[in-house]
Amino acid sequence: MENLLHIISNIFIVVGTFFILIGVIAIFKFKDFFSRILSTSKIDTVGAITILSGLAIRHGISWFSAKTILLMILILIINPLKSHTLLRYAVISGHKNKKAKGNKEVAK
Amino acid sequence: MILINKKDITIIFIFTIMWVILAESVAPIFVISGVITAVVVLLFCKKLLPLKEIQDINFSKLLHYPFFLIKEIYVAGFYIISIVFSKEGSRADIVSVKSKIKNEMLKIMLLDSVTLTPGTIFVEMDGEDIKLLWLRKKNDKDPSEIENLDEMLIGPLQRELIKAQK
């Protein structure tokens, strides 16, 4: 049973790391602020949640798992606020994307 | 005189659970100190918390919502992977959609959920109109040409939240 939990948790951690890796690739691939902010929010949500779920599964029913779930809830609450605040002030300040090689289009 | 209502008790309960988890003990001394701390924190922060706004919501119909949201987050996450690796490139647009939700708190929940879902971030709200930043493939249809943009971006989340509207 313990081995099974370890395997499942390892799968979760690997999948989470994969999501974060994709997010990092996206940051380097996209050249404009608006696309980058969308990819960072992906790292925070999908990647972090998957890795934290994996850690919680690995430790079973314990205080560590409870803290991990608490952390997950806090991430789910804080992440939209962070993304929205950054984006809103960029829009209010009149930020416009410059034409770049990786992403030729300009956000309206 | 300090009045403690049902909402306050719920918040004190949540704060105490958080305290106990961080203390890693259910010994009476930790539980009691947790309750005292929760009451003090609530007294200081009550004015900042939008407790009066939380009304006319049927929370029993939202019990499945966190699981539904996590499913939507993963579905959108895989879609974003396809955009990242697409050869045609991507573009981010600010688009406007209309929400059918009347309750302000549920509307905020919708906007938070939309921001959590990879590919869209909430920018601005003006009554029913919601502005979102949307990442899409470069060769996809222009947002102005898409008829059911509301349904595409906020439809599934909105449908679940409307059920909780009294």
Give a brief rundown of this model.
With 108 residues, chain A is mainly α. Helices cover 79% and strands 0% of the residues of chain A. Chain A has one domain.
Based on the model shown, name its key terms.
heterodimer, A: 108 residues, mainly alpha, 79% helix, 0% strand, elongated, disordered C terminus, B: alpha+beta, 2 domains, 5 helices, 3 strands
Describe what this molecule looks like in 3D.
The complex is a heterodimer of chains A (108) and B (166). With 108 residues, chain A is mainly α. In chain A, 79% of the residues lie in helices and 0% in strands. Chain A has one domain (2-107). Chain B is α+β, with helices and mostly antiparallel strands. Chain B has two domains: 6-48, no CATH class; 59-162, no CATH class. Helix content of chain B is 50%, strand content 15%. Chain B is built from five helices and three strands; from the N terminus they run αααβαββα. In chain B, strand 2 and strand 3 (129-137) form a beta hairpin.
Uncertain residue ranges of chain B = none
Which residue ranges of chain A are poorly predicted, with pLDDT under 50 across at least 5 consecutive positions? 100-108
What general form of chain A does the structure show? elongated
Q: What fraction of the residues of chain B are assigned to beta strands by DSSP?
A: 15-25%
The biggest sheet of chain A amounts to:
none
Please give the largest β-sheet of chain B.
3 strands, antiparallel
Count of DSSP-assigned helices of chain A: 3
Order of helices and strands of chain B: HHHEHEEH
What would you call the structural class of chain A?
Answer: mainly alpha
Tell me the helix content of chain A.
Answer: over 70%
Number of strands of chain B: 3
Number of helices of chain B: 5
* Largest interface: chains, residues each: A-B, 37 and 32 residues
Count of all domains of chain B = 2
Instruction: Give the strand order, joined by hyphens, for the main sheet of chain B.
Output: 1-3-2
Strand composition percent of chain A: under 5%
Class from helix and strand fractions of chain B: alpha+beta
Residue-averaged pLDDT of chain B: 84
